[in-house]
Amino acid sequence: MANPIAWQLATVAxxxxxxxxxxxxxxxxxxxxxxxAGQHVDLRLTAEDGYSVERxxxxxxxxxxxxxxxxxxxxxxxxxxxxFLHDVVVAGDRLEVRGPxxxxxxxxxxxxxxxxxxxxxxxxxxxxxxVRHRHRAGSHVPTRLLSSSRHEEEIIYRGELDDFAxxxxxxxxxxxxxxxxxxxxxxxxxxxDDRMLAEVIEPLGITTRAYICGPTALVEVAANALxxxxxxxxxxxxxxxxxxxx
Amino acid sequence: MTDRxxxxxxxxxxxxxxxxxxxxxxxxxxxxxxxxxxxxAGPTPRTPLDRWSFRIEGLVRExxxxxxxxxxxxxxxxxxxxxxxxxxxxxxxxxxxxxxxxTLLENVExxxxxxxxxxxxxxxYTTNLPLGDVLNGQAFVAWEYDGKPLAxxxxxxxxxxxxxxYFWKSAKWVRGLRIQDRDQPGFWESxxxxxxxxxxxxxxxxGD
Lengths: 246, 208
Fold this sequence. Notes:
The complex is a heterodimer of chains A (246) and B (208). Chain A has 246 residues and is α/β, with parallel strands linked by helices. Helices cover 20% and strands 32% of the residues of chain A. Chain A contains 5 helices and 11 strands. Chain B has 2 helices and 11 strands; from the N terminus they run βββαββαββββββ.
């Protein structure tokens, strides 16, 4: 039998606000075995009396970083764990973590491309690990990230994504906003649909590998559309969260 | 346990949705949800019902195949079960309609060496279970959830349901069972998840 994935004590090394509701935590993990872009960690919180809860969070950072990982957590107002992470945890605190977990929703340069990444809200987190990994590994695989946010101020990792795109090494980021259209906005301003995906994938072609992460409704729409556009099902990998809304 | 780590400042919410004391029905590390979250590794496959069939094959004297209408005509019942997903949610009292695997397996003669079931699905998904984990009312093939046809994103037209295991064992879009003499890890079981997946023992990942 394989060894269990052990719980480790991580020290919160840094905390950074990405948007008004998303905060990144750098977790220093001296015994971290390394991960693949797209994998997640489990986090366990334990109260004085032994009551404990666990949650899974995608790793946002690239595997090249040694002995630490970043997670980015959206504050869910009525949640049990994310408000604690946002409101209580400070640098220097310790958190129980284990991982890495998951072996399907992963990308590495050896898998090749072209690469289409489709994100809804904080679904961008595991895709960001892939983008960062691509950059750090020096990969020039043609890659387009289509990121859907409600409002402009809720776009996660915007500055860093713009920097990657400015490197002109085959990475492009395309935004869509679903709830507002600021003055001067030049991106899409609607929910992801067939026509948008057809336009975004056009330069990449149907040999593209697609990774989609976000709320179920977005993932369903995007995955079905990509299959209709001709991508083989086994080149479309999905990760979902949230209720179905039905 | 005096050496248990305590997270500074963490108290927890503890209240359960819907009221009542249901905590003893929530396996370790799980939280209760009233949503029905969706998790799949790829696009949702869609097979028209007139081309749909369900098959039992492998170590049986004669394989058997049911059309959709034939499956619907088998004795079926309502099942109200608690479901736990390895992604940490537990949903209580989920109401399904479907046919017991006992009923399905009555229609084949199992080989003496039959010991494992590989459930396989549209889209290529597989999951493995010992025969002993799916007999005696422990598993069913469901086509209704909450009084309505099972939605495609939840595994419709039909999915396997094995309530005593993490939900990845409840194969969506199931199309058949292959009976084997030896175990064979399925999709998630080959990707680091536990081979058995008993949520009360918190068998999430390989080695747990």
